Amino acid sequence: MRIIIGGAGRVGTDLAKALRAEDIDVVLVDSDSRAVKNAQNLDVLVIHGDLTTREKLYEAGIGISTVFVAATNSDERNLLACALAEHAHSEIAGANAEPLLSICRVRGMNFLEEQNNGHLREWAKVNHVINPLEGAIQRLHSGLRSSSIEEVIPFGHDAFIIELDVTSQAKSVVFQTLREASNHIEGGMPLIVGLKREGERSIVPDGDFMLVPNDRIAVATTGLASFNRILNIFGHEATDFPVNPKVAVIGATKIGQRIADDWLNSGAKVTVIERDLQRANDLSGSKIGANPNLEVIHGDHLDRDILTEIGIPDHHIAIAALENDLASIAAALLASDMGVNRTGLLLYDADLVKVTQRMGITFAVDRKRVAVDNMLAQIHTKAAGAYALLTNIPNIVGISMEVNERARFSGKRVVEANLPEWMRIAFIQRKNNNGMWESLRPSPDKALLNGDRLIIFSTPDRMQDIEKRFKV
To answer: Is-contact 2 18, C-beta < 8 A?
Structure first.
């Protein structure tokens, strides 16, 4: 299996690393000599050239490739490259060859709408468009519920992976095995699907593993209301989150509007602060602007008098959604300084995510990491849906696989399935009698039924083994 990635920036190189961890053949193509030089330390073939030229696609091996990913910073170049790659692949491989899967990264919402309406495949020959905005907003929404959570990864249907540290205050779990700790924790031990200890490799811990302070863990849980219980067990102070929070969104950009709409839909009261009068008026006159729980303020988000006038210290959350990362950081820090306890950011620059945490920002989301996860989910066509890299626990990934009648464990209970220790079922996702998906805890007596989707965590080099066990 060969995958060609156009663009050796942060998204392209992170995607290449993830695929190489699965021992997949990867080729990177970029016209920027600096990006090519930086990618030379990867275990991939790196080609310097324009991915919108047929000759470079030939050189990259488009005829024997199964997937083409266009991940440059230009929507137009990505779309053009996908169309050209499709034609070049069919020209070399022939009509009877396996079709090329094309994945295109875009930022413009107009192209996303074209995809949603079914038009993009027709005129641009693109199978999947990746715009990580919705996933990033969902992560931000979930992560702002606590200041102690390092990362939140939604897996759909009320299923979450949360990453956090074990503190010395976690008296009920440290210096004893996970099995022992579970015996005296009401409701049982939370399910840990990944663990990283300083100076050691990441693992999927079993019942005999002993936790110590400063271990970094990934915990599987269902429902946002469960976060506080997990925080308390692992030694963090949990604070109640209001049912109808007051949320300040700084910036009426397209992203700011989507964030405002997300919080309005969850019952929040939202104040949007926008410097540009025309943009503020456009939001007020829109469908979102008609919501009685939305207030749009025209004013400078860095003016303390204006922020005092609108009662910014009374807001539970402030989210900066400006078009520049540094401007967003400055706005969030000012809101924090004026008394807002929880502040959030969506960032383009991944290096700034850790920096903002040290500054005191409650939760920041790396949009490029979300883009990589979305691309991996599309590349793994045998998966039933999500594929995600754990942010703070390297070399542990989660993938959704569907149970079918060919799998040996179909119809058996989890305890009877004889699944190996190197993999861990985090959730069983199943349709209920009303046809709605729900996420279930994988207790030992839970049956694995045809059509179930299992969210499984393991090291990436085990992906082919997982696919074999599911007979896909």
So the answer is: no
Written as six digits, the tokens of 405 are 């009648």
Pick the CATH number of 148-233 from 3.30.9.10, 3.40.1360.10, 3.30.70.1450, 1.10.472.10: 3.30.70.1450
List C-alpha distances in Å: 381 to 103, 190, 196, 460: 12, 30, 29, 15
User: For the domain with range 2-131, which CATH number is right: 3.40.50.720, 2.30.42.10, 3.40.640.10, 3.40.630.30?
Assistant: 3.40.50.720
- pTM score: 0.86
d(CA 251, CA 261): 13
Q: Give domain 396-469's CATH number out of 3.40.50.300, 2.40.10.10, 3.90.25.10, 3.30.70.1450.
A: 3.30.70.1450
User: What residue type is assigned to position 163 of the chain?
Assistant: E
Per-residue pLDDT of the chain (472 residues; tens, 9 = 90+): 899 999 999 999 999 999 999 999 999 999 999 999 999 999 999 999 999 999 999 999 999 999 999 999 999 999 999 999 999 999 998 777 788 999 999 988 788 788 878 888 888 888 888 988 888 999 999 999 877 888 999 998 999 999 999 999 999 999 999 999 998 898 889 999 999 999 999 999 999 999 999 999 999 999 988 999 999 999 998 888 888 999 999 999 999 999 999 999 999 999 999 999 999 999 999 999 999 999 999 999 999 999 999 999 999 999 999 989 999 999 999 999 999 999 999 998 878 888 898 898 999 999 888 999 999 988 887 667 788 999 889 999 999 999 998 888 999 999 999 889 899 999 999 999 999 999 999 999 999 999 999 999 999 999 889 988 887 5
Which fold would CATH assign to domain 246-370? Rossmann fold (3.40.50)
Amino acid (1-letter code) at residue 388: A
Judge whether 430 and 438 are in contact, CB under 8 Å. yes
Question: Nearest 5 degrees, angle CA 460-CA 421-CA 377?
Answer: 30
Query: 274 has which bridge partners?
Result: 298
